[in-house]
Amino acid sequence: MANQTTRRTLLKGGLAAAGLGMFGWPELALPALAQGEELVPFTDVPDEFGSGALGPTWRVLDIRTITGPLTSRDDFYTIQHFDKPEIDPGAFSLKISGLVERPAELSLADLRGMGSDETVAGFECSGNSPRMIQGLASNGRWTGVRLRTVLEHVGLRDLAREVVFFGADHGEEMVDFRGQTHAVDQPFARSMSRTDALGPDPLLAYALNGEPLTRDQGFPLRLVVPGWYGVSNVKWLTRIRAQQDRFLGKWQARWYRTLWAEEIDGEVSYHETEITRLRVKSVIARVTRAGGRHTVHGFVLHDGTPLQSVEVSVDGGAWQPAALDAATASDTYSWKLFRYDWDGATPGEHTLVSRATDAEGRVQPTAEELEYKQTGLENHQQFPRTVSIA
C-alpha cells in the first residue's frame, strides 16, 4: 500500500524534457502582483501564522509571497533540533574518517579547489503539513562540490557500506534501553548508503543563490541531497565517517520513520520505512484577481521523477489541467511552479485543491487515501484551500 520511491534513469535524462514538450506547457513564472492585480484572501490561514509561527529560531515560508523559482536566503525556511552553531570559516575543516584509504581534514579552500557545481533543488521538512500552511518548504540554487568527488579523493574502502554526516549542532539526548535511559551529548547526524553517497547528485554546498550560506542555512558547509526530505540535508557539516554497519543515531533510526499499515490476506500488519526521498506533492500558494479574471498559483515538490500532470479542482468539480512553468521544469530537482486560469468564479467561499501525478503513475493522495499511514511525517496529501470571492 505504501509506494516505495524509485527513479528510472531513462526518465531522469532526455525523456524528462521530451515529456514536458509533449504537454506544450508555456514559459511562465509565479509573478509578483501586476498593476491592477490583487490577492484573493484565503479563509484557512490562522491569524497568528507568519515567519515566527514555530518560534523565534525557526522560519516558516509564507507561500503566498512566492514570486519566482528561487527562495531568497532570508526567506528560506529553517528548522533545527539543537542550537545554531557559529563557525569561524577560517578555522573550519571537514574531517573525513572511518573506512577510507586517506583520512583527511579539508578546509573550505580545499573543497572549493575540487571543483564547483550547481544544483537547483527544492525540498520540505518531512513534518510539513497543512498546520504550517505547507510553509516548511523552499527552493534554491546550491553551489558546492559533489560529495562523490570528495569521497573519491579520500578513497572509500570496499568494506564501507554506510556514510554518516555529522553537524556541529548538538545537545543532550535521552537514549532508552530496555526501560533505562541514559543522558548523552549527541550531534545531529544522518546517514545514507554507499550507493546513494556515490551517486551523481549529493552536494557539499557552501552557497545558496550565489551567496554564502547564512548561519540559518548551515554556514559554512552543508549537505544537499536533491530529491530527499530536508532532514537528510545536514547543516553545519563538520564530519563524515564511512562505516560498515548501519548508523543508529536518534535522527536516523528512531525519530524519522514512517509507520504504515498494510492488509495481507485479511490481516493488518505494520511496517516502518525511513524518511528519504520526497513523495510527489502539490500545493496551492495563492489566488489572484485582475478585473473579472482569477488565477490560481502553486508549486509541486517531488523526488526528481518527471511530472505527468498537475490538475486543479474547484468545489469538488472535475479535475482541470494546470500549466507548468517551463523555467522550473528544466531543472530536475527544482520545485515546479504551476498556474490555473479559473474562469467563471462566482461570489462567495470556494474550495480549491490541486493534485500532481508523476511519470511513474504515482498520484498525490487524498487525506482518506493516506489513512493507512500511522504517523504524521511525509504528509503529501492533497491540500484543499478555501478562498472568499467578493
What does this structure look like?
The structure is a single chain. This protein is mostly beta strands and 390 residues long. Helices cover 10% and strands 38% of the residues. It has a 5-stranded antiparallel sheet. Strands 3-2-11-6-7 form a 5-stranded mixed sheet. Strands 4, 5, 8, 9 and 10 form a 5-stranded antiparallel sheet that branches. The two termini are 43 Å apart.
Give the uncertain stretches in residue-range form: 1-29
Can you count the beta strands?
21
Question: Which percent bin holds the helix content?
Answer: 10-25%
Please write the string of helix (H) and strand (E) elements. Answer: HHEEEHEEHEEHEEEEHEEEEEEEHEEE
- Helical/strand content category: mainly beta
Task: Report the radius of gyration as a whole number of Å.
Answer: 22 Å
Number of helices: 7
Percent strand equals 35-45%
Ends distance: 43 Å
Major sheet description: 5 strands, antiparallel
Shape: globular
- Kindly report the spatial arrangement of strands forming the biggest sheet: 1-14-15-19-18
Mean pLDDT: 88
